[in-house]
Every structure is written in C-alpha cells, then in structure tokens.
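Could you join me in thinking about how sequence relates to backbone shape in a protein? We need material for that, and I hope you will provide a protein of your own picking. Once you have written the record down, we can walk along the chain together:

…
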Amino acid sequence: MKMTFPARPALALAVLLAFSGAATAASVSAYQTMPEDPKSVVVRAKGDGKADDTAAIQEAIDQAANKGEGGVVFLPSGRYRITRSILIPLAVRVYGVGPTRPVFVLAPNTPGFQKGVANMVIFTGGDQYTVGKVPMPVPSAVPFSENVRNANSSTFYSALSNVDFEIKDGNPAASAVRMHTAQHSNLSHIDFHIGSGLAGVYQVGNVAFNLRFYGGRYGILAEKTSPAWQFTLMDSTFEGQRDAAIREHEAGLTMINTEIKNTPVGVEIDRGYGDWLWGKDVRFENVSKAAVIVSNEDNVYTQVGFEKAIARNVPTFARFRDSGKTLPGKGRDYHVSEFNYGMVVKQMGEPGQFTTNYKTAAIPAKPAATRALRPLPSTKEWANVRKFGALGDGRTDDTAAIQKAIDSSRVVYLPLGFYVVNDTIRLKPDTVIIALHPGLTQLMIPNGSPKFQGVDTPVPLVESARGGDAIVSGIGLATGEVNPRAVALMWRAGEHSLVDDVRIQGGHGTRLYDGSRNDPYKKDAKFDTTAHWDRQYPSVWVTDGGGGTFNAIWSPSGYAQAGFYVSNTKTPGKVYELSAEHHVRAEIVLDGVENWEFLAPQTEEEIRDGADAVSLEIRNSRNLLFANYHGYRVTRSYKPMPAAVLISNSSDIRFRNVHVNGESGFATCDENGCATYLRANKYAYENAIRDVTNKLDIREREFAVFDYSGKQTRAPAALGKVEKLEDGFYSIAGAAVDAKGKLYFVDRYWKRIYSWSKDQGLLVVRDAPHDPVNLAIDNSGNLMVMSSYGPQATVYAFKPDAAPSTGLIMIKPTPVAQRAGAKVAIPVNFWQNGEFKDQLNFDTYEFTTLAEMFARDVALPKANEYVSPDGSLVLPAYRVLRQGPADHLGWRWADSLQAYGFVTAPVGQRVVFTNGSENRTFSGVVNQGGGLSDLKRLADRGGESAVLGPDGDVYVANGQVFVYGQDGKQKGRIDVPDRPLQLIFGGPDKRTLFILTHHALYSAKI
C-alpha cells in the first residue's frame, strides 16, 4: 500500500533544494498566510530593509510577553533592518508569515557587532530563583546591559520560526541567534546567511529543524545547554563555514538527517571537553580536515557516535585532538555504518574500557536523503476551530465543536485558548491537528468530568484512529488531577504518523486559563494536590500496533502513572528529544515493544514526586535503540535508588551514549553577592542499568556503548575481598577516624552519628537533630561536625564519650590565620565546571577548559575558617548558597556540604581528591584558607571519593574501588556488593580500608 503525505509546498521545495547541491537556494515561506488568532500580536514595521525596525519588532514582542505568560507574534513578509539585539522573553513564539519568509538584516558595519560575540536575537529567561538582580547578564547583548537575563532551565515554550537572517560585511562578531533555552523551545525553517560574520547560532537549547547555514566562521558555536539537556538538530544543512560547521562541547548534540559540506571540519569538540554526540543519517561532503574532531580522550564524558553516515571527498573521518590519531575514509566516497568512541561496557557486572569502533566501506553512489520530520500542510488548508463554535475560554464545553471541526476538515487549527473537553476527541486516519503554542493552547479536562471517573478502562482525551498517518502538533493536553481513567493521548496511528511539539499539562510550570500557575504541591483545607499523584493512566500511551515519529514531547504530569508508555506494538517508532519528568513510579515504560528507537530522551526525578521513580523500564521487548539517553535525579534528592533503567524478559537493546547523573547548578544572588554554584547529588542512581531477570547491574553511569543481549545470566567473578561490617542504613557518608583508627560516620537522613571499631562494633554516638553532614576529628579527639542547619550552615564539636545532653561546643567562623601544625579539612570530592556562565574568551574565541576552571576555582582561599577546640584542625568556611527560606529550612549548597567527606593535611602537604565534573582524581598542595595548588592528575577515574593508601597507592571509588599506582596506571580493583561512596583508612594499624555505601559498611584489609 502506498502512503501519501499532506503536502507543504514551502518546506518540500526547501528540502529538495537543500540536498540538490544548489549553492544558496532561495528559501520559501513555511507559513504562507497568517493564521487567524485574535490573541496574537502582529508586528507593525516598515520591513523595507532600509528603515531601522528594531524598536517596532521589540514592542510587539514585549506586548506578547504578557508578564511572563507568553504569547504568539506574527511577523509579516519583509526585510527588517536590525541595529541592536532583539530580546525574546520566555514563552514568546515568533512566527514569520506571508508568501516569502521575512528576513532580519544586519547592515554593513552596524555598530556593536565588531568585537567579541554580538547577537541579533537573544532568547531571555525569567527570574528563576526570585533573586531580583540578574546574576549573569548576557555578555553578547548589543548594547550590553546588566538587566538582560539569559534564557535558563525554566525558559519554556520560546520559539523563532520561518524568519531568515542576513549578516552583511563589516560585522565579524555577529551571531544571529542566542538560544540557551529549556524544554519546548525551537528554531525552525530558518536560513542563516552569515557571510563574514561569526556564527548563525551561539548557544543552543532543545530542538532545531530545517535550518540552513551559509558561510560564517561557524554555523553553530555552543557549549552546555542551560538545563544541561540534549540539543537535537534535524533536517538541516551547513555549507561554506570557514572553520567548522559546528563547534561545541557538552551540548548533548544529537543530529538526524543533517548535511555538512564545503568546510574544513564537520563537528569540532572543543579542547579539553567532551560531549554526548550522536549522529544518524549525517552526510559530509568536501570536508577537508575531519568530519569530527574528538577531544578529551579517555574520559567518560566523551561519548561520540555516528550511525549510517555518508562521506564524499572526506579524507579523514575522525581526528583525535589529544593523541593525534586519525581514522581515514575508505576511498573517496564511503559509508560509515558505525563509529563509536568512549567507554564500552562489554558485559554487565564489570567496568567499561575506552574503545574505538569504526566500520566503513566504499559506496558507489550517494543515497537519497530522508526527512526526520514530516512537513505540515499549507496554512491555506487550516480550518479554524473557532468557525465551528469553539470558544477556548476555559469554561465553555468545546467538545462538540472540536469534534465537528475534525469530522468536517482534514486539517484543524486551534488558535490560542483553553478548550474544555468532556469526552474523547477522536481523530480520523488522516486528521491533522495544529496549534502554535503548547503552553497557551490546551485541550483540558475539568476535574471530576463524569466520563473520566471511576475504576474502568482508560478514556483518552485525544485518540487516534488505528493505522493512518495523523498529525498532532503544537498543543497542550491537560487531564486535570481528579480524572482517574484519563489518558492524555492514546496513539494507535501508523509508522508515518507524527506527534510533534506536544506538552502534557498538569505538572510543574502548567499555565491555567485564568493566568495562574498550577502548583503540584498545593495543600489546603479544600484540596490536596499531592493526594492525586499517580492515579491516572499514562499521559502518552502508544499501543495496539501504534507507531510513528514523536518529536519534542514534554510529559511532566505526576498525576499519571508514566509520562510515555509504549505497549503491544511492533510498528516502528522514532522518538526525538522526549522529556519525561516528575512521575512517582516511572518516566518511560516499554512493554511488549519491538523496532523502536529513542534519540535524546531525558528524564528528571524530583525530590517529592520522583523519590521512588525509575527513569526507564523495559519489559518483554526487543530490537530497541537508546542514544544520547540522559537519566537525571535532582540535586535535592535524599533517597538512594538502585538503577535508572530496569530491564526484564527482553533482548537486543542497544545503548549508545548513556549519561546518568545527579549534578546541577544555578546562578543566583544573596547578601554576599552573585555567583554560579555547581553541586553534585549524593543520591544519583547507584547503577545505570539493572537486569531484573538475571540480577545483573552496570555500575558505570557514563558510557558510550553497551549491547544488551539478554543472554548473560551471571556476573564475572569479583576481584578483591571485602567484609560486610554492618548494614541497614539509609545512606551513610561523612566519615572520619580518630588517632586509634576508630571510625565515625553519619547517616544523614536519620541525623545520627555512629562509630565502629573491631572491639566495640557499631555504636550510636549521638542522635543529632542539627542535620550532621560531614565529620572531622582534631588531635584531642573532638568530633567536629559540619551541619547544614541554619542560613549559612553550622559547625559544632563534642567529645564522642560526652553525655548527649552536655558538651556541645558551637564554633563560629573566624578570619583565616597561620596556625602552626594545624591540619586543614578539604572536601574529598568537588564539582566545578563553570555552568551558566559563558566560558568563551571573546578576544581569542577559545573556551576556558574544565581543567583550567577547576584549578582556578579550587585555588581560591577562603576568608574565614572554623577552628577546632584544641586549634589543631581548621575547616575553611566555604560559601553557602541556599534555596528556600532564609531560616534553617530549605536546601544549602556548599563544597563542604556536598562532599562525601573530608581529607585532612597541614598547609604545604599534598592531599588526594576527585573532580566529578572531569571524573578524574587529583592531588594538590593545601594552602592557607583551604586553597589547593599545583594540581597533579593521578587517575582518569574520579567518582565519589579517593584516598591515599598506606602502600602509596591511590584508591578511587567510582562504581567499584579502583587501585592506581604512583605512575597513574590502574593496578588492581576491589569489587564491592554495593556502590562505594566514601573511602577512608583506619583500624589500629591504619591499613583497614573502610568502604561506605548507602546502606552498608564494608572493609578490606590492605
């Protein structure tokens, strides 16, 4: 049976020309008429290419901002001269409309665009942490202003579509767009004529498609996205860049159906950085230096993979910056079926190894290009639902009017509005539903809607017909809180169907029809929102032979049992940039599924509505691909969880570029000024993958390749020997040993301090209500406690054998001073990577590397310190930033609070510690005030902690305990039944390695 697609002439012609070899094909408008929407804002400017239209465009955008709620702006065909940065606030979407694409023009020698980086358009964000002052103003704004707030991890829904850019001569610093956004933002249908300018896009976020870059030093120049989620680029082309088509690091770059030609380098990863880079159906032509430049070798954060790549006249496919190694092409024209570089896990239960996989062969001809995303129908076909009687006022029942529109028209358009629905909206096999803002265009079920009540089979809000090629695009679906039978979207459509730019409402950030925001934590006398969590069917449920393409889906409603659920289907499915978050049990579930691939899926588990959640659960399934998968738990988490991915009774699952983490950061201001703070989560998933059927785990949380066959039934034999001393804890860390080698540690959840020794066993030293986190012991045996209690945290001390009701010594910070012979307590693990602040040097166009940032930051001495009662131990007063109330409640962030423990040494002596943001272990000289200098890398692993052994070896906790000799080479391993967190030597002879895990205490004799 031959499938036919609804045509969109504009995009079809653009794609044809993009891949036909035409040098600079003319763009064609994707929205050839202006959709009717009374709530939209239309730009009123001259558009003659001569007059300065900046103010008129900004005025329209500011009007649509609607006090942070956002809106839609239509920009008619024309040529608009820009003289300063246009700021697009959060949740504002700008669409070019008319028979030709409107063009933003930067005239020759426009003032402000000659030095550094200067953006024509900047996506901005809101006051994410309600701090008032902008902590990190956008440095690339023209003119610069302290009040331009960068887009951030809560910048949702922003978009720019169907607007081209022309950068004329004399603007070498010009970059068209800065897009540092989070979920449900996009750039689409844009041609960038960069000429002698710097870049088309500087800083990226979320999704971009149908972009064409001509000229410039770079097409895209980027670093980590603001929420650290992946960036997905589809159906795009690059041509004629002077240095590289794409230069980036840590952007989670995912490319599908992208063509790069006539440039020295395809994708360059910056010096000193890695990335989770994945490309499928990427084509390179006339690329002289390398298709990809890989940096930061032998590091777990470097994960690079391509599948089904084509190269024509590309002598070198991959070039490795650090080692100088190259991978040549197979003749002039060749096909790369697989390329992977990074840590490869060969079987469950053992650590990975860094490996290069490269499979290539010559090809006789260039294969035809395939699109990732289907085009939408022409705007001339859009039937406005308002003409069928729908009001979208958030109160009137619009069910009948919407269904009538669908029954009468193939293509149905919903203007901005909140459309109340009390029964299932049923699509025909070829129905196309289009909206332009998924935050402000919603189909919504009111609470208590009769057909969605009771205990019975699921009732969809929107249901596709079986088979067919239906499309749903740009809309929000809200199932309310008290509708237990509701499913937001039940999808049974076929392989060529499309669900695009859809937001499941009901969770964090949901906008309501009256302009207020939904609070998923609301509790009052009338309604407890949390009581209804996890009481609905899945939000997006693909089943009964359903399949198709799913792009830019954001599903964060904790009222549903899962965000994205696929069951009982062998019909192929492709999922791009799925964000499933904040569910109580599971974010993504597959049960009885074959022939699906997920590219750049991301999950997030919150502290309250995700403490027990699994990121991905796979049951009874096979032939699956997960690439650039990101499983994240928020830093505020307090509960250990065993694994991000659970697999049972399944086989043939390929994992490529796996990133399971729990660190994050924020830029904020307090009474001490503004700062960017990075923190690591003590409660990230303990394992990346767990085979439930065979009881096997993968401890590595960062790796490039793992092929799950389902055939492995047992783990390799353990190396080393450990003894379990005690178990049954919630989560222990913060350990210290006294002069006799006795161990003291904290179970923070229960606010309890324990001791352990061979002769006394486990003892409760003190039940401490003041939130103990980390311990240190001075020469007199005083136990020094770092506590997160209070606005700036607290330090106190006591004798372990003192009565619990007495002997507590409160220690106030005092200025740093020379204290002869005193030891300094330094965190054993850090997280520093400069997130949220541009690291590009605007003079040299080089990025400060992670290693350089880390060395710079840890070298800074602290102004104050806490001194132990006998003066033999000092704890530098690391800056404490807080989220939440100014009293003792809320969360406190500091290097000394986030660490798994301390390592102590006098000034001038070396200590061993890890940097999680590099995943490496270092030694450094302790300086007065706690600064660390003369850093030396000891090992290419650096996880939760490290310790120098009595034998001179370095022991590193990173999934297992890895042993490194003084030459930096691994010489052994100690396998532990649970993930090791803190390592510390003690016992009478100081040769007992204590290994703290979340729930148990182990030891090994060295």
The longest helix spans residues 54-65. The first strand starts at residue 41 and ends at 42.
